[in-house]
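REVIEWER CHECKLIST
Item 1: Sequence provided? yes
Item 2: Single chain? yes
Item 3: Sequence as submitted:
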Amino acid sequence: MTRGRPALRYPARGIIGGYGEGEALVTLNSLSFWGGVDPSTGVVTDAHHEWRGVSVAGKVLVFPWGAGSSSGCGVLMEMVRCRTNPAAIINLETEAVLALGPIIAEELYGRSFPIVTVEQAVFDALITGDYLKVDGTAGQIVKIPRKEQQPCG
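Item 4: Structure as written out by the authors:
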């Protein structure tokens, strides 16, 4: 019987507190929620983004920083209302507009999701498919590495 790789812990700076966990979606591209994500489904609609057609609902989104206008916070707030929001967001830098959506959602709906920032080395260690537990209050990310492919036979 083989054992999986151990969980890894990384420091993070909590921008929005709380806890969220799920499968990681990682990109080196910025993401605009305004016009780039359908809040009723959580599906990325930006024709130029590598996540086009992918649902971000319940995923831990790892991207360097947001893009777009101040209306992006409204999209994130609507995603929380529709329960199509990501489980958490991890950035290198988070602008206030991105953080405002979860803050207002917490006030209006009593629920939200964490946003944290990390150093470049941590960002580089996160891979699509990893299972991530994000604690925005404690400032920590726990990474459960993807299962490695087992050879057949």
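Item 5: Key structural point noted by reviewer: The domain at 8-136 is CATH 3.50.30.10 (Glucose Oxidase; domain 1).
Item 6: Recommendation: ____
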